[in-house]
Known about the structure:
Blueprint: H1 2-26, E1 32-38, H2 49-58, E2 63-69, H3 75-84, E3 91-95, E4 129-141, H4 142-147, H5 159-171, H6 179-193, H7 209-225, E5 241-242, E6 247-248, E7 250-254, E8 264-265, E9 279-294, H8 302-310, H9 313-319, E10 324-325, H10 332-335, H11 344-352, H12 354-367, H13 375-385, H14 387-406, H15 411-429
Helix pairs in contact: 5-6, 6-7, 7-14, 7-15, 14-15
Amino acid sequence: MKNKKRYILLFLIFILIISITTSCKKADPNTVHLWMYQRDQNDQIAMLIPDIERYCENNEIPLQIHCYYESEMSYDDYILKRNINLEKNNTIVCGNYNEMRNLNSEHANYENIENYKNIVKSCKNLPYMLVAYTYNIRLINKNLLDVYDINFDKDIMSPTDYRNIIFRLLENGADLSNDSAINNACVTNLMYEYNLNLNNTTKESEIDEEYRNNLANAIRKFVEKSKDRTNIALGCSKTIIDNKTNLTLDIGYGSDCREDNCYYTDFNKNTLLKSLKDTIVLFEPDMIRYAIYINDKITNESTYKLANYMLDSELLGENIRFSCFTLKNDCADNMYMNIVNNNVEIEEYYKENETELKCINEIIERNILNGNISEEFINELSYKTLGMNSLMECFIMNAQLFNINRGEEKTEEFIDINLDNFIKKIKLSL
């Protein structure tokens, strides 16, 4: 009986030793950990995985990929799991705007990555490496601006410029038809004025008493600006028409991707714009498509080597489509496809607008591509990425709706009832 107990004890000790040995192997401090969260296996970023695995195998880089899909885990559960593991050595996070949320502000020294030199300078104040993003291009009607003696002397128009043009038109006597666009422009400007815009690096500690007071003051100012209105229109239509001249402010809408942006249509994107003359290019960054974050606990220099490969222009060009890149040094030849369009109508359109199309493309290349995008556009991208900013716009406008529905000015009552709960929502979103 004693011998049997001794054998059992030895067996348990043996199992314990194997378990400890195995756990030690899993805790190899030189393993590079790659985290990502995707919709499905056909997502373009998920499709990078085979190339990354092949590269690590060829270069003897120990790699552990933590890739989760919506079908197996919710985003909130993933973020919780990922952030618990962010303290592990040699951790890389890659993905879209959602992946770049809730990250540490401390990060690795990206200067140790050779291809980091190709990222435009205006992106280098971020804790992550912004590589690709989506965008929209609109053509603004210069003839309408001329009617109201408005001179726009920049090469390209930013969203901030566009909002200010709306108010200059109104000041100069225009009768603009789109109340929702005017409201949105007013509220967005107030959010800039009072430093309310959130981005994916905003910390909960920044939503303090000063922030609360700024939001309350933005509400009061919006109510003051819109006190004469009997209705507050909420909507997303961007088409603005001047009722006096019947001229439209936004007359052309470009394709949603760099590879196919050589034609412009009406608002519904189903009719080609006949003439591109007398227009100004409005460039609107939309969403972060691909970015890379590396934590500051590097024990294996191959972490930088892998990140360098993930920034390779040929790899990006083969896998990340329908995006604009932040890389300079003439990487464009590797990253952008040339789509051949055999549509006869479009071919005729190209011939008729050849000069204007060439001019528009040169403007985009000078101001956006090959490392030319300014910090103003990058800030717009950071703010637009977070959906809570849109909810905040609606919240501010709801204060005037609150007053209209009660038939008298009740702004302070609206603030007392709703502001603290909305502040809690902001904190929960970060």
